[in-house]
Amino acid sequence: MMQLELSKEIEKKHLKYFQEKVLTNFDIKPKFLNITNENIHIQFMNYCKTKFRVLAIGKPEDLRKFRSELPEEILSLIDENPMCSYRGKKLKYNKLLLNIFGYEKFCNLNQYVSKELLTQENYKQINSELKHYWTPYNFVTMSNVRACPYCNRQYITPIYIHSNEKNDKHKLRADLDHFYPKSKYPYFSMSIYNLVPCCKFCNSSLKHVKEFDITDVNPYEENFDDYFKFRTDILNDGDVYIEKTHLDHRIDRYLDYFQIESLYSYHKNQAEEMIQKRIIYPESYIDELYKNNELYFASKEEIKQLVIGYISDRGCLNDEAFLKFRRDIAEQLHFIDCITDDEQLEKLKELIGK
After folding, report:
1. What does the alpha-carbon distance between residue 205 and residue 47 come to, in Å, rounded to a whole number?
2. Is residue 162 located within the same domain as residue 110?
3. Which strand (E) or helix (H) includes residue 244?
4. Is the CB of residue 156 less than 8 Å from the CB of residue 175?
5. Which of 81, 145, 249, 272 lies at a C-alpha separation of 20 to 30 Å from 304?
6. 155, 180, 209 — which closes off a domain?
7. How many CB atoms sit inside 10 A of residue 123's CB?
8. Gene3D superfamilies, alphabetically (predicted)?
9. What was the pLDDT predicted at 353?
10. Which residues pair with 178 in a beta bridge?
């Protein structure tokens, strides 16, 4: 739930792939029933050639600018999505654009590894071969994003899946979400800052029925952590709820899209566990633990993080599942600021005793 940052090495590899595998497709000239549409398509592709760096590695603000500067006739052609034909095949214009930008091909293992090797399912050798190519698998691995930036509940697991009997394609499934949906923005389907490593549940079960807009809060630009805190109702049954720290309709949409409060309500037990630890590990006991183990810990905070199970560094929230939740609850229970209210402690004991 922290802002995602991509390394220069990732940008360099993706730009190289885009230049070698995507840019050449901009010369494709489909046939339309309306000759005007053919000219508009050529105009669009020529424009994409001049902006290929933006389309490949442009930041979200660059992508928004690209979209805002598109001529009206190009936007209309994409919105109308007319039928066209290329090499004897009829298809919708948006489908043609997806083929031109080549996201499906990017995910297809067959272009990287021999069919014989894939059939043998020699994963060690497959991994060795994949190191030489730029793939979704390598992108997710190099991003160092281990927990879903949308929900922070699930781990991200890049895998490759077996062939489909219909098309005999082996695909890399790396749980990449198109923040700006490729159905609406096919020209951003291979933009690296439009590809968000995320968990399968958020990508397939939740977000596939909803779409982010061009103005929504973007994980490559902002910290979702800045907008809300998880809280537990200490006075009642320890129920989990969300406390918004900023009034912003965009964060309301995000919370609704991914059903954050509803999903985390199932993890009330984690809040109860931390409440128990607040009672069991008062500051005086933490002080004693640190005093007896100074050789093994750099600070008292390290002991608390290990014993209680949270992390104080906000910058590490994408490293493990549930880190934001546990950090927010630890903050509410004063593990982080080391304040213990006797009255609150009694309420915690009362809650645990229910």
Report:
1. 36
2. yes
3. strand 240-244
4. yes
5. 145
6. 209
7. 11
8. 1.10.30.50
9. 59
10. 195
Q: Is residue 218 part of a domain?
A: no
Residues 196 and 309 in one domain: no
- Taking the mean position of all CA atoms in its chain, how far away is CA 30? 34
Q: What is the mean pLDDT of the chain?
A: 87
Cα–Cα distance, 86 to 30 (Å, whole number): 5
Dump pLDDT digits (tens) for 285-298: 999 999 999 999 99
Please check whether residues 204 and 231 belong to one and the same domain.
Answer: no
Cβ neighbours for 292, distance < 8 A, ≥ 6 positions apart: none
Q: Is residue 106 part of a domain?
A: yes
Give yes or no: residues 186 and 239 share one domain: no
Cα–Cα distances in angstroms (integers) from residue 198 to residues 141, 195, 217, 290, in the given order: 12, 9, 16, 37
Please tell me the pTM assigned to this model: 0.86
Domain that holds residue 282: 224-352
pLDDT at 102 > cutoff 90: yes
In a domain, 219, yes or no: no
Residue 89: C-alpha distances to residues 73, 85, 148 (Å):
24, 5, 39
pLDDT at 170: 55
| Residues 167, 85 share a domain | yes
Does residue 217 fall inside a structural domain?
no
Number of domains in the chain: 2
Residue 5, helix vs strand vs coil: coil
